[in-house]
Amino acid sequence: MFEDATKNRVARWIAGDISISSNPGASIKRWRKKFEMKQNTLAEKLDISPSVISDYESGRRKSPGVQIIKKIVRAFIETDEKSGGQVTRAFADRFEAHLPPEVVLGMRDFENPTDGNELARVVEGKILANENLLNKKLFGYTVIDGPKAVIELSSEDFTGLYGVTSERALIFTRVTTGRSPLVAIKVRGITPGAVVLHGSITEPDEIGVKIAEDLKLPLILSETSGINKLLENLQESLP
């Protein structure tokens, strides 16, 4: 979204909060007010009518898609930057603490979506659940240190793993059974587009697989050798 890493971190968090909210319009309004932006100003930045913004925020209009949400967030941050960027910097400091680099090993959003079939190929994956749903579109991925994420992240922090959209793959590394990541996803109530398990799994956990089946969540076991190789394959082979 931005070349600057700080702006990208803030943009991903805000876009993720909007896209996975049960009331995206209310979330847009809340963030607009945090950035002290009027509806007319946002509408002008997006080259649309102010009534469209009003309809989104009131729920009269269907929730905007990923691309519109990206444009809205870009408008927030670019407008703030022209005024000194104080709001963006304040949120960057907050989000930096929430998603430390030792937990999030890699995070990427795609310009063009891929799907679970291609993801499974890239991670050298074995399908554990819902193979029939691998054609779902994926708009990004987040690679996570599984044990640290489950133990250290609060529910609010966990939301940040979804980046711009929940239609992404969450890839948990250093996994031994696969149960904990699936339990964490179920408890937090936000289902990603796919989950990849990577680690020293000899026998997939039956409860973890059952949770994935119940959530209609494609579950993939990566057989790629080593985390560095996994990250390299993801970076080089996906759009």
UniProtKB/TrEMBL annotation:
Gene3D superfamilies: lambda repressor-like DNA-binding domains
Domain of life assignment: Archaea
Domain HTH cro/C1-type residues, every copy: 28-82
Organism the protein comes from: candidate division MSBL1 archaeon SCGC-AAA259B11
Classification of source organism: Archaea, Methanobacteriati, Methanobacteriota, candidate division MSBL1
GO molecular function: DNA binding
Annotated protein name in UniProt: HTH cro/C1-type domain-containing protein
